[in-house]
Amino acid sequence: MEKKLKVGILGGTGMVGQRFISLLEQHPWFEVTTIAASPRSAGQTYEAAVGPRWKMDTPIPESVKQMVVMDVNEVEKVAATVDFVFSAVDMAKEEIKRIEEAYAKTETPVVSNNSAHRWTPDVPMVIPEINPEHYEVIHHQKQRLGTSRGFIAVKPNCSVQSYVPALTAWMEFEPYEVVATTYQAISGAGKNFQDWPEMVENVIPYIGGEEEKSEQEPLRIWGHIKDGVIEKAAGPVITCQCIRVPVLDGHTAAAFVKFKKKVTKEQLIEKLRSYRGFPQEAALPSAPKQFIQYMEEENRPQVRADVDYEKGMGISIGRVREDHVYDFKFVGLSHNTVRGAAGGSVLSAEALVAKGYIKAKE
């Protein structure tokens, strides 16, 4: 790419916004030129607006420290400075819907980390290795919005990344029933242990809204476009429990699967290791070379050892074994704020650029 695209971060002072800024610091295609946040942060430098709330391991990039934060509600003003935006705003669901559509209607593509539009029928919800064909629904969305280049695309919930890639790799064996339990890191709530000391040595067996998302969003990912909207798949049927555990980064899943077709452990492992998608074929900048790694050790994957696999963009699967109630069971691990949040959105934006949906404004 001869000239980098100008990118805005909506909600740039929160944890996911911070992760976007960290990931984009040396990006070969994208340059952060605008950061927008709530009116209370607007007018301050980014460094001052974030203050002691910076949660990344690496320092605030020098390129954004003195950038003056804009008011996210000044849609036209913000949109005029960028080619497209990443959305990580912290608002009520209906407010997020309104503001993301408002940006799209300024002819500014919106790649959102938020859940507000995940079930809007003509908004693609994509894991680029799994269902990039869903981007084709953007044509119908543009007709509804009355835009020529503005649209909204979203990524799915962070919890599904740890088991859906494996199930996708096994689709030819027709999985039809899945029981999953996710053990989810506290950064998924936008917090660390300093913010949330109650989580030290604690487990909370409830995360609001997560179980429904974990059961239903995979069906939309596996769905198809019909009459200008995405229809979710009928199966496999998934039932899920979501538990908050005292881990900073990394969502682990323990899953049990029934298959319609006879399959061996060796076949399942081979399918994981050989699985590739559009990001690998197109050699996108943020794409992991090996999307799914299979780990032979009985005690892997582990959060400390494996969460940063492929810079947090890869999926780690282990303990595939036969089960005496279900056919097989396995354990999965994904980085919830990289692959599951900002990194997944960055990869989606790269795919949208590669497919011609995002271009520089003229």
SSE map:
Blueprint: E1 5-10, H1 15-23, E2 30-37, H2 46-50, H3 62-65, E3 70-71, H4 75-79, E4 84-87, H5 93-104, E5 110-112, H6 138-145, E6 152-154, H7 164-169, E7 175-184, H8 210-221, E8 224-226, E9 229-231, E10 237-244, E11 251-259, H9 265-274, H10 278-281, E12 292-295, H11 303-306, E13 315-322, E14 328-334, H12 338-354
Parallel strand pairs: 1-2, 1-4, 2-3, 4-5, 5-6, 7-10, 12-13
Antiparallel strand pairs: 7-11, 8-9, 11-14, 13-14
Helix pairs in contact: 1-12
Strand order of the largest sheet: 3-2-1-4-5-6
Q: Per CATH, what is the topology of the largest domain?
A: Dihydrodipicolinate Reductase, domain 2
Strand content: 15-25%
What is the CATH superfamily of the largest domain?
A: Dihydrodipicolinate Reductase, domain 2
Silhouette: globular
The domain tally reads: 2
Q: How many strands appear in the DSSP assignment? A: 14
**What characterizes the major β-sheet?**
6 strands, parallel
By CATH reckoning, the class of the largest domain would read Alpha Beta
Q: Gyration radius, to the nearest Å?
A: 20 Å
Task: Give the CATH architecture of the largest domain.
Answer: 2-Layer Sandwich
Keywords: NADP, Oxidoreductase
EC number: 1.2.1.11
Domain Semialdehyde dehydrogenase NAD-binding: 6-138
Active site: 158, 251
